[in-house]
């Protein structure tokens, strides 16, 4: 069993590159059948477009064949070098170059047109030999990738797998060092640890749990990598606080999982409102809070933290 058979869809891109290499190599043999002029297969889209639609600019060609401006410019340089096209400054815009066929290219054009017709029939016969029409499959694949990129699809699979590996835990005394470590880590990165932080982080049982609050933690691959707390403010109001995710696991959706679990917990406790304090410097955190449904509030309370410059709330419904 070769590598392609063993890994299958996992290396679809490599399989397509191998097929491209095979067809490109055989295409060179096809060009050799029709003319003595050296012609590389990679020139074809540019040359064909210029020959069939004379007077285009480099940017126009790039747009029509779906290649970059730089890639088309390089091919045009090669075609000029082989005296197949010529480049002139446009009369209306001297900054834009107009591409036309040179004498050698003009002589090659009828031969190339006949070659295209022959190759079309040869490829139609080739496709007829296969159970699946590759051309139609490619069109379907291009459409599917335009709807969602391969990277986005891989991320969705990865996130789903990781989500199954993340465990949300209720606070236990043995987790206090992790609770403090994760929060001190992000606070010191941007601000300074304040007295109000240390009270809650050093004595979570006294300052959070015994006052009717709760602490949630996220475990991933045997390590505590995230945490958040609910601090009871009033009978129907809790503060979402002390949310932290280890830098090594950020981007895995752990913060959203913790935030959503905290919201569900608050709702089960009969809360009608969640409140939080943050700083606009923390852009990813602010985006997360908005994603969870929080909105900025102007009904501000005195904050015990110097770093607080934004307060947000989420009104809970049944």
From TrEMBL:
UniProt-listed CDD domains: NAT_SF
Could you tell me the keywords of this UniProt record? Transferase
Q: Where is the N-acetyltransferase domain?
A: 177-317
Q: Does the keyword Transferase apply?
A: yes
* Residue ranges constituting the HTH marR-type domain according to the UniProt record: 9-150
Q: Answer whether the UniProt record assigns the keyword Transferase to this protein.
A: yes
**InterPro entries recorded for this chain?**
Acyl_CoA_acyltransferase, GNAT_dom, HTH_MarR-typ, NAT_camello-type, WH-like_DNA-bd_sf, WH_DNA-bd_sf
| Stored PROSITE patterns | GNAT, HTH_MARR_2
| Alphabetized GO MF terms | DNA-binding transcription factor activity; N-acetyltransferase activity
**What is this protein's name?**
MarR family transcriptional regulator
Please name the source species.
Hymenobacter crusticola
């Amino acid at each position: 069993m070769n590598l392609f058979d063993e890994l299958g869809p996992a290396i679809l891109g490599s399989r397509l590159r191998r097929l491209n290499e095979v067809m490109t190599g055989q295409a060179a043999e096809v060009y050799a059948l029709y003319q003595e002029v050296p012609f590389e297969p990679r020139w074809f889209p540019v040359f064909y477009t210029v020959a069939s639609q004379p007077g285009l600019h480099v940017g126009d060609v790039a747009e029509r064949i779906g290649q970059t401006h730089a890639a088309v410019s390089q091919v045009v340089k090669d075609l000029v070098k082989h005296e197949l096209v010529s480049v002139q400054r446009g009369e209306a815009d001297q900054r834009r170059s107009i591409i036309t066929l040179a004498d050698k290219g003009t002589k090659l054009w009828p031969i190339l047109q006949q070659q295209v017709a022959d190759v079309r029939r040869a490829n139609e016969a080739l496709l007829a030999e296969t159970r699946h029409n590759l051309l139609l499959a490619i069109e379907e694949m291009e459409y599917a990738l335009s709807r969602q990129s391969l990277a986005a699809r891989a991320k969705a699979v990865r996130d789903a797998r990781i989500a199954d590996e993340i465990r949300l835990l209720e606070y236990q005394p043995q987790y206090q060092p992790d609770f403090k470590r994760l929060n001190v880590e992000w606070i010191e990165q941007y601000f300074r640890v304040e007295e109000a932080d240390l009270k809650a982080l050093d004595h979570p049982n006294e300052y959070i749990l015994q006052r009717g609050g709760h602490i949630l933690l996220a475990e991933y691959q045997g390590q505590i990598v995230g945490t958040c707390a609910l601090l009871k403010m009033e009978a129907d109001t809790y503060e979402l606080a002390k949310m932290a995710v280890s830098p090594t696991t950020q981007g895995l959706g752990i913060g959203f999982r913790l935030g959503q679990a905290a919201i569900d917990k608050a709702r089960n406790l009969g809360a009608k409102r969640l409140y939080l304090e943050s700083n606009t410097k923390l852009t990813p955190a602010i985006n997360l809070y908005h994603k969870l449904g929080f909105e900025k509030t102007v009904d501000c309370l005195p904050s015990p933290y110097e770093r607080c410059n934004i307060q947000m709330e989420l009104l809970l419904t049944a």
